[in-house]
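Write out the 3D structure for:
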Amino acid sequence: MDIQESQWWGVIGELLDRSHLWRPEDLGGVLDGAAAELGLAMTVYLVDHEQRSLRPLAVPGRPTPGPEPIDGTPAGQAFTLVESVAGADRRWAPMVNGTDRLGVLEVRLPAGTHQDERLARACETVAGLVGHLVTTTNPRGDHLHLVRRSTAMTAGAELLWPLLPPLTVSVADFAVAAVLEPCYDVGGDAFDYTVDARRPQFAVLDGTGRGMRAGLAAAVALSCIRAARRAGGDLLGQARAADEELMRQFPDARFATAVLAELDLDTGVLRYVNAGHPPPLVQRAGKIVDTLTGGRRRPLGIEGPAATYGEVTLSPGDRLLLYTDGVTEARDATGRQFGAERLADTVEKHVTEGLPLPEALRRLSHAVLEHQAGPPADDLTLLLVEWSSAAAHRTVPPTTRADDQAA
């Protein structure tokens, strides 16, 4: 059995038409109803915040399946590798919004369906549309947020998550991925980036303490960095703006550590400012080749002498890792820290396997979490940048990669 291209357009058209006025809980049923016209059954699976399982949206009239583990399942393979996976009677298609991995689409096929590249392309197109619709539908209510949660989120985490950009973004010649843990109880950690033009910027920061006050300090610092950047301020100016507002808002001397960095894609020069934060790492040809110890100044919110930039020249293919001290200071049951050396070794293991950048980072963050005895004692944030077109293309489905490379 072959499904004609015009029939797929019917599914896409109904989704778009119905999406204007639907409630968040309508998405799964509308999609499955449109797919039924082609003899298909479709289920949307959203990744949970801890990135360990894929959780289904309910479809009226049929039982809701249980979550699918990411590790060791066909659905998880489609998610981790950002590529379609075919089974005997179904296909799993990766669901991204741009390049941010949101989950997968399960497409159950009629008996005798011929699974070829056209079918893969059609399933990936529908999955991509659903990814965009999930993103635009999210703000309408709580339903899609709750599907992705395995437990309640603290008020501090509710404050910070809406302020953060997507966990993954890629453009033509580089990719950025981030992870923030514990995802339901994060307090003072945050990250940011901008990929405009030829001078992308990246930031990771850590508000002192835990809970809501740490989250407030991180939110103030993040907002000041963005406001100064969007007003044309350089990295040093962004840091000064955060200093001034933190001192104004928190007379108890609450502060935040941070790294702010800017990469010139025409020259390869990376300029950075380190405000009392762990030093970033540079990976080249699979090995950690540099620890960036320059550009030091006091933490944001503490007055100090004028700062200067740190500077290093990167090459295409290099990776830059920014992280908070919750990574290196994570302790096992014996009190042994994860440490900078173990971090470098783990980066070399997971970021050299040809995986999509966000998947390499997911595995790296889980290695840190698995090292710990019990819940994390501190927030941990990782932000990984890879300067290469190959890294960017690994974050989109294969048929999209082929179209881009042909263009």
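The CA atoms of residues 80 and 189 lie 25 Å apart.
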